[in-house]
Amino acid sequence: MISTNKNIPHKAVEADRISYRLSRAKESFEEAELLATHKSWNGCLDRLFNSCYRMASALLLKHGIVTKTHSGLNTEFGKHFVKTGSIPEEEGILLANITRWKYESDFGGIDSINKEVVNPLIPQVKKFLKDIEVLINTDETKSKNKKR
User: Fold this and answer.
1) In angstroms, how far is CA 111 from the centroid of its own chain?
2) Any domain includes 122
3) Which of 32, 92, 111, 133 is the most core-located residue (most Cβ within 10 A)?
4) Pairwise CA distance, residues 57 & 19, whole Å
5) Which range of residues forms the domain containing residue 129?
């Protein structure tokens, strides 16, 4: 749950937001897997996109980076994590592609979102989520060690 109490230090509120986004990213991924079993490919793509977006936004927030748009998130994610080598380039490409496909599916009137497009994304997104969570947890370990 996100804390809104103004008496809670900023770091605690930030940690709550990061934790919430991590939790929602995992929940969205589980929903995507369920939708895939029901052959709901547009719904599955939507949930895969949301899981990636939430996980990437948690990582950005961990580093004090706040974005207001999906394209802003993609730009900042690429600049701070892909170009620096913290995240593999193929995962930056995955985030960009899944964002584009989600928008094309929602607003472009295309109906080419099908099993052949979506099924290969599921293991890629699973790896993306795992890699970012490891990076977030590694960052937490490093900051705890610095305080000692």
Assistant:
1) 24
2) yes
3) 32
4) 11
5) 10-143
